[in-house]
Design a protein that fits this description.
By secondary structure, the chain is α/β, with parallel strands linked by helices. Helix content is about 40%, strand content about 10%. The chain starts with a helix and ends in an 8-residue tail after the last helix.
């Protein structure tokens, strides 16, 4: 009915015509879709959640919009629920180090503070990853503004050398301005004299979570949770080199470049940093 009337009333929108005739808009749009529309939709949803096992319906919806599908979040959620395409979850990672008695501790400079630009606040942490040849440890530094993993490093031991290797790589790549903030927990790797000295030498300021308060370093914890859910827990690693290659593919090839972040207006960290005007968008 709506289709046959539109030529006679070209200035009336579908919304207005539906209101006048008492016809639900959803019925009009549903009938305008081809019979293969749902099949095509399911194929795209399956491809998205297979590529990004941690994507919930909101991120899937955003990716579908990028691919030209016009539908609402609630329909995406219903389709995913009906087809059993929900994202997987993971357990919270455990800490790997504790502060040594006598090490320096610094106040939390990040709590309640939102960075306004990149290289203003970096958050650091480590996590343990199992391989068939023994445990390995991943150190990372994340830009709090763009959520980008600015540097990461892997080692057999969770020591100061590993943390310093990650820090040196980040400083070389990003060269932050004086006054930048380094935030971490009170692990011995980050309270060590050599590590603190290197941050201060680069004209950075140290910031730390309170002991026993992992929520104050939630952004680093969130990254590890995502990493393990979408990559580590889905694979087994025979060796250190195999793990390192897998982390490179995920962090450098996907997480930073293409994985959408809701806090960034459903853009990847690289897309966010490359945008003319940084800031979340709808």
């Amino acid at each position: 009915m709506i289709a046959s009337l539109r030529p006679a009333f070209p200035r009336l929108s579908v919304h207005r015509m539906c209101a006048l005739l008492g016809v639900p808009r959803s019925l009009v749009y549903r009938r305008s879709r081809s019979p293969d529309w749902r099949t095509s939709l399911l194929k795209e949803v399956e491809e998205i959640v297979t590529t990004w096992l941690g994507y919930g319906y909101r991120r899937v919806h955003r990716e579908l919009r990028r691919r030209g599908f016009t539908l609402g979040e609630h329909r995406v959620r219903r389709v995913m629920r009906e087809e059993g395409l929900w994202s997987r979850s993971s357990h919270r990672p455990q800490g790997v180090t504790r502060r040594r008695k006598g090490d320096a501790v610094f106040p939390n400079l990040v709590k309640g503070r939102a960075p306004e630009s990149i290289n203003e606040i970096w958050v650091a942490d480590m996590t343990r990853i199992r391989t068939d040849s023994g445990p390995c440890y991943l150190a990372s530094l994340i830009d709090l503004h763009s959520r980008k993993v600015v540097a990461w490093s892997v080692s057999r031991r969770p020591n100061t050398e590993l943390a310093l290797a990650c820090l040196e790589a980040a400083l070389e790549k990003r060269r932050p301005d004086a006054g930048w903030i380094h935030h971490s927990d009170q692990g011995s790797t980050y309270t060590a004299r050599d590590y603190v000295s290197r941050v201060l030498l680069s004209k950075g300021r140290m910031s730390m979570s309170r002991a026993g308060c992992p929520i104050e370093n939630a952004f680093a914890e969130s990254f590890f949770r995502t990493l393990k859910s979408e990559e580590v827990h889905l694979n087994s690693y025979a060796s250190y080199l195999e793990l390192e290659a897998s982390l490179s593919r995920y962090i450098d090839g996907s997480y930073n470049t293409t994985r959408m972040h809701s806090a960034l207006g459903y853009r990847s960290p690289d897309e966010f940093e490359a945008s003319p005007k940084e800031g979340p968008t709808n």
